[in-house]
Amino acid sequence: MSTIGLTLADWLIIITYFAFILGLGYYLKRFTKNQEDFFMAGRKNSSWVAGLAFLSANLGALELMGMAGNTYKYGMYVAHFYWVGAIPAMLFLAIYMMPFYYSSRVHSVPGYLKWRFDEKTRVLNAIAFAIMTLLVSGINLYAMALVLHTFLGWNWHVCMWASAATVAIYVSMSGLLSAIFTEIVQFFLIWFGLFLITLLGIVEIGSVREIFARVPQSFSTLWSTSMDASQNGMNITWAGVVLGLGFVLSFGYWTTDFLVVQRAFSAKDMRSARMTPVIASFFKMAVPFLVIIPGLVALILASDPKSGFSLLQDAGHPNYDSTLPLLIARYYPSGLAGLGITALLAGFMAGQAGNVSAFNTVWTYDIYRSIINKNASDESLLWMGRVTTIIGIFLSVGTAYWAKSAPSIMDYMQAIFSWVNAPLFATMLLGMFVWWITPSGAFWGLISGMGSSFALFLAVKFNWLNAQILTLSSPASDMATNFWRAWWAWLICFAVTVLVSFHTKRKPKEELTGLVWGMTDVEKFDSLPWVKRPEFFAVISVIIFIALNIYFW
Amino acid sequence: MKPIWYFVGLLLVIMGSIIVLAGVYTVINPPPEQKVLAYLHPDLWWGAVMIIGGLAFLLANRKKTVE
Questions:
Q1: Domain region containing A313
Q2: What is the value of pTM for the model shown?
Q3: Which one of A28, A49, A336 has the shortest CB-CB distance to B42?
């Protein structure tokens, strides 16, 4: 295709964004005086700041482009990622898990594992998380360069190094605080930059009702075609959606992935920390209006030869990820095109900053201070955080070059989460709610869960195992295989943890105060009117969630 | 420090202004190849929405500071 030509106005928008976030990083540096400021943003954020950052850490450009493309491919089923695949888990984190996380005053999720279990479980999870974070960060960087190269004709190396250097500068200056600030800026840029596509798409097709009338019926429903895997585009049954995505992958990601949970840790008090995921849940439910409508509009346009719209082709196959950029090229005039590109750039860079800020925290607290320098001073930890940011960025760039030479590693993104997060969710669930789970049970459960998830991935990839055995249905799409593999890994971790705990030494109950349900005084907020309590807002969120699922049934 | 909402407002006003100015320029000098739905002038009204939203954030937070 011919690339999207940028005008002076587009360039001004892009340059304004870069200058703005670098200036913001410099401004915030003066408020970053110690390690608590650098790694936890001083624990002073309001629930709105932490909540929008919590959502934005997950709202990367790769996800937006991928989900718009997936809508073109699978239809409304993609909304499961935003509704059943997110909302129950976010609310569970807010109401049931945050009291333990926040009251224990840990700096990271592996830090909680140390207090609840032991050092070896913490280090195992810290290493797995650090590797996962660097891989995801590098793949994100490569994806950004790929988009900019394909649609704008920009040089690969300049794209990767310029964005990596920008992120390195502002995160090393003020750590999590600058990462959170840029995530909030990204949130607004994404909505202002991409929501107009939805509006113009509706205008071009005629109405929302017309859009749903012109796509195949299986593309416009959420659940009514889920009894039979062959009746929906994703080739998955309701059980796969609920168990794999809605339970294991979703809870594994939203309740244990330190990248998102770290934002809630930065809240100023317990109520703000619990409100963080609740506030994020409302905006999460709105994201389908950014990706689903454009995906369906693209599908309708592509099936109408008079529209002149078609997706890019890669070796004869449609490039679904080209959906959003091609709609930007179709609708956005000078200036707005710059805003659309900046929204994607902001999404990529904020995603990278989020990964790096989570990586520097886990490295500094859970590997450096835990193994290398147990008596590290405050200054030493702050210095290590800044150095680790730079090193993390270099390692991400290395991973990006690796992805460039072997693009198939992009396919492993979804799989990576099921290797690390799915088993960890079983460990955290048992650890927080069952007091007699032992350190050895947690450690061997995690090893078994991670190992089995990886082994199942290899077995399906190299045809040692038929994917239909894993998914209990035929046919079995890649997406269904991912969901079901996560479920089995969770189940194996859960079973091994319980079995080993029966036969190994338990921690004394007095060491579990503040860490386990039933042994922790959870703040009730009795002095607050009920309309200000997290539970009240969580109930409203649940009502909207149920209404959306029924409406699009 | 100034709250993040102040900076969000500042950025929206700057970017919205650039987009509106680009829209005005496009009205005066239409490009040879028009975008789909260009007759709606989305740059003019969307840029204006950004400026109004940005000004609301700026004004609401111009005197505020947070810890």
A1: 8-24+44-411
A2: 0.89
A3: A336
